Amino acid sequence: GSELGNWALGHWTEEGYDLFENFPDLASALWAAEERKLVPHKFPNNHIPIPEHYLAEDATVAVETRAVMAWMDKNPFVLGANLQGGEKLVSYPFDTARPVSETPAAAPRRPDDYEDDNPELQETPDHAIFRWLAISYASAHLTMTETFRGGCHTQDMTNAMGIVQGAKWHPRAGSMNDFSYLHTNCLELSIYLGCDKFPHESELQQEWENNKESLLTFMEQVHRGIKGLVTDQQGEPIANATIVVGGINHNIKTASGGDYWRILNPGEYRVLARAEGYNPSVKTCSVFYDIGATQCNFVLSRSNWKRIREIMAMNGNRPIRRVVPGRPMTPRERMRLRMRL
Q: Strand 281-287 relative to strand 163-165: parallel, antiparallel, unpaired?
């Protein structure tokens, strides 16, 4: 029961790790690269690699954390949630607070936007989608949006909506949510099931009733957005192809079978698929309000850029002089052309 323990009890492992904050801090690495204008040409905005020092055997990383990261790399998860206690709200990324010195000027907002007058400067490119996912859980909960009495322990941080951005509420670096978003395709949130972290057995049935419909509604959101296959002209799947959604500066990649899923709010999107050695393909995909992802497949044709790069490398990466038809070549030009061929 709650009278026998405080909020922090059970928060750490036997070895002293807080598993939720034990993941690599990829958000700070991304922001540092943005400051140096390296994104996305030299530093990706998605599937950011795990730093080498973090993978070393003597790194201060829990064995459970390593197992979860390996699990994420093995399975192309689309939507995730970690369940916690001691509060009653849904928290979404970013959980890491961006340093003021690295914060760019906030983009102007539409007058009818749903955000407050002081938008967070560390919003993810999928901020609107994360809010929708959080609201889908909180609105179906029996008591999560009844915040007129305040929060569980302090004032209500959710503006009576039952949702809050992690960095605004409880800033932390290396969270599972931020790692999942920046290293995989998965959109992950933290769901705090109730104020009582250690409810008595007699209270468990009511806690289940409070959260049951929310859990089902949240899982249904995996079918909102677009999905499809990326193949070549022979129908072979293309793994690790990049899916770019216009207006959202966060790309995803196809799984080993060439399939992808992208959770999106209703609307019309310009979607591009590209892969190394292939010509990119662009099409317009519409997402509707009804549950059910829109099928949006791509067929990519092979590109000759790979062969062009090989020829350029043979030429020392110098521009190859164009031969003008009708003009005779000099002996030197003829010899150079023969060497290249």
A: unpaired
- Residue-level pLDDT at 182: 97
Percentages helix, strand, coil for the chain, rounded to the nearest 5? 30, 20, 50
pLDDT digits (tens, 9 = 90+) for 151-164: 676 777 777 788 99
CA distances for 231 relative to 275, 282, 331, angstroms? 10, 14, 46
Give the per-residue pLDDT at 165.
93
Chain centroid to Cα 18, Å, comes to 22
Q: How far apart are CA 271 and CA 254, in angstroms?
A: 14
Q: How far apart are CA 256 and CA 236, in angstroms?
A: 11
Question: Beta strand 187-194 with 79-84: parallel, antiparallel or unpaired?
Answer: parallel
The confidence score (pLDDT) of residue 111 equals 44
Per the structure, how many domains does the chain have?
2
Residues 95, 7 share a domain: yes
- State the Cα angle at 172 between 14 and 83, rounded to 5°: 60
Angle at 319 between CA 313 and CA 324, to 5 degrees: 125
What 3 state SS string does 45-60 have?
CCCCCCCHHHHCCCCC
Asked if 281 contacts 273 with a C-beta cutoff of 8 angstroms, the reply is: yes
Do 163 and 67 fall into the same domain? yes
pLDDT of residue 120: 44
Q: Residue 297: which domain range?
A: 226-315
Within 8 A by CB and 6+ apart from 236, the residues are 258
Q: How far apart are CA 32 and CA 43, in angstroms?
A: 10
Residues of the chain with pLDDT under 70: 1-8, 101-121, 147-151, 153, 306, 317-326
Residue 200 shares a structural domain with residue 265: no
The neighbouring-strand residues paired with 244 are 272
CA 186 to chain centre: 6
Question: If DSSP codes are grouped into helix, strand and coil, which group holds residue 37?
Answer: coil
- Give CA–CA dist 245/326, Å, rounded: 47
- φ, ψ of residue 269 to 5 degrees: the values are -125, 140
Q: Specify the residue for token string 């072979």.
A: 236
